[in-house]
Specification:
This protein is elongated. By secondary structure, it is largely without helices or strands. The protein is built from one helix and no strands.
Length: 251
């Protein structure tokens, strides 16, 4: 056997070993920082596991149950999580860039400072979820349920929240510039100091909402319900500063 043949065989062996290890990671047991890149985990029961800093990019997690799991700092970028359950999961600081979460259940999940930019969360349930400081830039939350969710300081710039239920949610100091909230339910929501510049709030229900010190310059409010909404010192659509005591309309 000449040297060239020997080298060729060695390269082939190493290549096969490399390919084997690349495939084998999907069979790795659950653990912190596990790498399940591109893996098919659909329908898997992953409840209450410690998967902090796990790499789940492009993974298929459709219908999987991750309720109660510790997933702080995990990377779900481009992952498919439609119909997945993440009830009460710890997802603070997790990455969901362009992830698919349509119909997912994230009730009471901790999503503080999570990155959900351009993710699809149509019809998702986030009841009482903690999204303080989270980034949902251009996320699609059409028809999502966020009753009682905590979104203080969250970035929802250019997000789509049409027909979403945000009743009783805390959106104080949230960034909602150019967000679409047509037919959204914001009944008794806290929008103090929120930035709603150029937001589309047509036909939204803002009854009893707290809009004190909110910024609504150039926002669209045609057909919106503002009954009993508090507007003290809000900057209105026409750049008027609402008088203290303004209730139901900007005076």
């Amino acid at each position: 056997m000449n040297k060239l043949t020997g080298v060729a065989i060695m390269v082939g062996v190493l290549g096969c070993l490399g390919m084997g290890s690349a495939r084998a990671h999907c069979d790795d047991p659950p653990a912190k920082a596990v790498i399940w890149l591109d893996c098919d985990l659909s329908g898997r029961d992953l409840r209450d596991l410690d998967l902090r800093r796990a790499v789940l990019m492009r993974a298929n997690l459709k219908g999987a149950d991750l309720s109660g799991a510790k997933l702080s700092g995990a990377d779900f970028s481009f992952a498919r999580l439609s119909g997945a359950r993440l009830v009460g999961a710890r997802l603070n600081g997790a990455l969901f860039v362009r992830a698919q979460l349509d119909g997912a259940v994230l009730d009471r999940a901790n999503l503080r400072d999570a990155k959900l930019g351009r993710s699809s969360m149509k019809g998702a349930s986030l009841i009482e979820a903690d999204l303080r400081g989270a980034s949902l830039y251009q996320a699609d939350l059409t028809g999502a349920v966020l009753r009682g969710a905590r979104l203080r300081g969250a970035t929802l710039e250019e997000a789509t929240l049409n027909e979403a239920d945000l009743s009783g949610s805390d959106l104080s100091a949230a960034k909602l510039m150019r967000a679409s909230l047509e037919d959204a339910i914001l009944n008794k929501a806290n929008l103090q100091e929120a930035n709603l510049e150029k937001a589309d709030l047509q036909y939204a229900d803002l009854g009893g909402a707290d809009l004190r010190n909110a910024y609504l310059v150039d926002a669209q409010l045609g057909g919106a319900s503002l009954a009993e909404a508090r507007m003290d010192n809000a900057m209105w659509v026409d750049r008027r500063r609402c008088d203290p005591g303004s209730l139901g309309s900007c005076r």
